[in-house]
Amino acid sequence: MSELNGANDKQLHILTVLVENKAGVLARVSGLFARRGFNIHSLAVAPTDDEALSRITIVVDVASAPLEQIIKQLDKLINVVDIGELHPTDAIERELMVITVEKGPAAHDVVDAALAFNGFALDFDEEHITFSFSGAPERLDECEAMMRQYGITDIQRTGRVALRRLVPDAVSAQ
Length: 174
What we know:
CATH class of the largest domain: Alpha Beta
CATH superfamily of the largest domain: ACT domain
Order of helices and strands: EEHEEHEEHEEHEE
Number of strands: 10
Helix content: 10-25%
Number of helices: 4
Largest sheet: 5 strands, antiparallel
Structural class: alpha+beta
């Protein structure tokens, strides 16, 4: 079983759930979590290359319920086609963060900090700059901490998406 290092010693697991791409399926999945009191740390959903299917990536905190119980309950839903668990060492994870920070007197320092995390400027005015970052969730945590010193005025993160590595146990830059 996988354990991701999260804040407050949460035991986080990545589940990928392949579902029928139909209206109401996401509501049924999230309703299951709400009814059972399962905690969702992150949730992302999008269609797959097969337009009849969507992939839901759910990062769950197993402190709220045993992983086996979560999987059994998901498997009971009629629109669920397949459920998989991704171990962090066997997964490529990414997240998107869009963040607006104050320029302040040292705008070039803000830009340099963003570039250090491969950020892209999306918008700006006299007082603020909005950047986009994508990468491993832990790297975005570091980026967010760095940007706090400049004054974050707005922030949005997507949640994790993940796929199984093509070469298991391969070391790559996340």
